[in-house]
Specification:
mainly alpha, two-stranded antiparallel sheet, about 50% helix, about 10% strand
């Protein structure tokens, strides 16, 4: 969630995968409620559903934003050349994006 917020993008995460994951969390909550499990077994899927909602909201908000990607070099690689060359943006050790 924090990395998506920093990048202002959900690139790298499949919406279909996340929808299926959220459905699993809903069934987890339904099962906990139907079986009358202890409070912590009900609160945990509620927390998961809350985080699912945050990520799905990020998908909606950042739907048109895309992160810069690195360009792959087209020349033959050797021991002295970089395999990947950076383009106009970079990510530092703190996962902050610099353009």
């Amino acid at each position: 969630i924090l990395l998506n917020h920093k990048r202002k993008s959900c690139d790298g995460v499949s919406l279909a995968f996340y929808l299926m994951w959220s459905l699993g969390d809903l069934f987890n909550l339904a099962g906990a409620l139907m079986e009358g499990l202890i409070l912590t077994a009900i609160l945990l899927p509620l927390y998961y559903i809350l985080t699912d909602c945050v990520v799905l909201l990020q998908f909606y908000i950042y739907r048109n934003n895309h992160v810069c990607s690195c360009a792959v070099s087209t020349h033959a690689a050797d021991e002295e050349s970089a395999l990947i060359t950076a383009n106009a943006c970079s990510v530092d050790d703190n996962n902050d994006i610099h353009h």
